[in-house]
Amino acid sequence: MYRTNTCGELTIKDAGKDITLCGWIQKSRDLGGMTFVDLRDRYGITQLVFNMETDGALCETARKLGREFVIQAKGTVRERSNKNLKIPTGEIEIEVNELNILNRSEIPPFTIEEETDGGEELRMKYRYLDLRRNSVKNNIILRHRVSQEVRKYMDSIGFIEVETPVLIKSTPEGARDFVVPSRMQPGTFYALPQSPQTLKQLLMVSGFDRYFQIVKCFRDEDLRADRQPEFTQIDCEMSFVERDDILDTFEGLAKYLFRQIKGIEFSEPFLKLPFNESMENYGTDKPDLRFGMKFTDLTAVTLGHDFAPFDTSEYIGGICAEGCSEYTRKQVDELTEFVKRPQVGAKGLFYIRYGKDGLLKSSFDKFFSQEDLDKLAVEINAKQGDLILILAGNKKKTLTALSELRLEMGNRLGLRTKDKFVPLWVVDFPLFEWDEETKRFYAMHHPFTSPKPEDVHLMEKDPGKVRANAYDLVINGIEIGGGSVRIHDTTLQKLMFKVLGFTDEEANEQFGFLLNAFRYGAPPHGGIAFGFDRWVAMFGGQDSIRDFIAFPKNNSGRDVMLDTPSQISDKQLDELQLKINPK
Question: What is the enclosing helix (H) or strand (E) of 526?
Fold first, then answer.
């Protein structure tokens, strides 16, 4: 072994020991007769001391060490005179008597410190250097901890980890597939799995009644902070279970992870919030319940006052921002500009100030009396000192805009703190969603999601009213995972395909392997898939999953370190019998 100890473990108890350390030079300080070097490895930093009086040649060598040189240092542990109690090794230093340079380093393109001078693109290009920084390194270690705890818990309740193929069949539903051409079968293609959905269902047919896998998945879609073209799921499936059996099992996993990783106990069951109620009250199927500010439907009490923006609207909704009645005109104007942004989509913002003196003043005083405003305040449960914010228009668009406004107010008022967690289940989603462009229904989740048993009779005559036996785990406004009870009956599965517009031939071509398996005794089953990257990012207190992936892609889906995607040679194209369309 090159070393006897790591740079993070020696303490005052080790004083007098002869040891050997290896690592990278973090920085050095030349004080004339003494040279001090901070040596870093994965475990921490230890100070090395070189003394000109005791070994001048060795000290001269130490003075020439550059940042990120890899060295081996042998010496004796001694107590430091100027202790640094901010680090575990801060009470000791190593008096070096032998130094070996294992590898020299060029000057790094950015400083490898917490307050680095490297921009994101530069750090992604040299990601192997960025990973040396403590914050990034600790993110990857956190990812490891979470994965180990997941495996411990799942094993403890009888789940078996089974690997599924990475090269599978392309399916038409869901996001766009990444496809892989086959050389051995020219003109045909594999797809990289968006999820092992059909494969885990086949494992249920096989009799593996409790399956899980921490698995790579792939989706060719536009990127944002919580998306990458390749990401990791905790994929799970169970047999002979109903919805609440699944929710209880994986609520247990969530509570276990919070306890092990964050030291947080949840003693009460998670709230189960129906989809329709979530949309009406929060305008989203992933509400952030760290704070209130529920929507109030003000349509009935605002119509009929000859105020065109209200009288011509399908829906008028409002939120009450507590203690904000003294918002300045500038602050209200900022909120107005916020809701007019294309990604929010409102035409304008209306407000009522409920002064601490009890007077109500609005942006539409000309059309509403003090008595009318008082009715509005009562309806929305406002009190003196509050600010009522109102949006109006098409119901669906207005609910979405109100949701964004609510989150913006939550941010402004400091209500979305990183150290508070409010988990809930959103349940009873619609089974189908209608697409105006193609004039057909699509599966809101996927085509293997079971309808609620009491809604099966609506499948053909009114598909839009059918509820799915589906559920999402939402924490702090983030969808951490989602799943459903699956269809396990061939007849019902064929009916599902029919509503989705598949012919029998198309269904058999795409999913014949699954339909055939159902003919041989498929058990009732269901499951869930968690966004593993999202779990880790949430535990790490950050929004972007990219910070918790060792070698992520940028917003354009490029790996700037490997310089990929890239072109392949004409020889490879010939082998695959492919041509590149120059257009």
Answer: strand 525-531
Name the residue among 534, 533, 487 with its Cα closest to residue 511: 487
CA distance 465 to 454: 11
User: What residue type is assigned to position 251 of the chain?
Assistant: E
Token digits of residue 363: 């942006």
Contacts of 93 (CB under 8 A, 6+ apart): 36, 46, 47, 48, 49, 77, 78, 79, 80
Token reading at 439 = 């004039």
Strand boundaries in 332-475, DSSP class E: 350-354, 360-362, 387-393, 423-427, 432-435, 440-443, 470-475
- Cβ 362 vs Cβ 351: under 8 Å: yes
Pair of tokens at residue 480 = 């951490």
Q: How far apart are CA 138 and CA 536, in angstroms?
A: 11
Token code pair at residue 468: 């799915």
CA atoms of 550 and 465, how far apart (whole Å): 44
Question: By percentage, how much of the chain surpasses pLDDT 70?
Answer: 99
Write down the H helix ranges in 326-417: 329-340, 370-379, 395-412
Q: Which of these ranges, 25-34, 117-126, 164-173, has the smallest mean pLDDT?
A: 164-173
Tokens of 44: 């921490």
State the pLDDT confidence band at 512, using cuts at 50, 70 and 90. confident
Q: What DSSP state is assigned to residue 97?
A: E
Q: Is 87 exposed, middle or buried (0-12, 13-18, 19+ CB in 10 A)?
A: middle
Q: What is the rounded (10 degree) CA torsion for 371, 373, 378, 382?
A: -140
pLDDT for 108? 95
Report whether pLDDT(132) > 80: yes
Q: Contact 25/69 with Cβ under 8 angstroms?
A: yes
The set of residues, in sequence order, having a beta carbon less than 8 Å from that of 283 and lying 6+ positions away, is 295, 399, 400, 401, 402, 403, 404, 406
The structural domains of the chain, ordered by start, are 12-103 (2.40.50.140), 137-273+422-570 (3.30.930.10), 296-412 (3.30.1360.30)
Report the candidate in 539, 564, 568 with the shortest Cα–Cα distance to residue 552.
564
Cα(114)–Cα(128) distance, rounded to whole angstroms? 15
The residues, ordered by sequence, that sit 6+ positions from 213 with a Cβ below 8 Å of its Cβ are 161, 162, 163, 164, 196, 200, 233, 234, 235
3-state secondary structure of 295: coil
- Is-contact 214 532, C-beta < 8 A? yes
pTM for the whole structure? 0.92
Residues 282-313 as b/e (b if ≥16 CB within 10 A, e otherwise) read bbbbbbbbbbebebbbbeebbeeeebebbeeb
Work out the angle at residue 415's Cα, subtended by the Cα atoms of residues 413 and 416, and round it to the nearest 5 degrees. Answer: 120
Question: What backbone phi and psi angles, to 5 degrees, belong to 101?
Answer: -85, 115
Alpha-carbon Rg of the chain, whole angstroms?
A: 30
Cβ atoms of 33 and 49 closer than 8 Å:
no
- Per-residue pLDDT, 442: 85
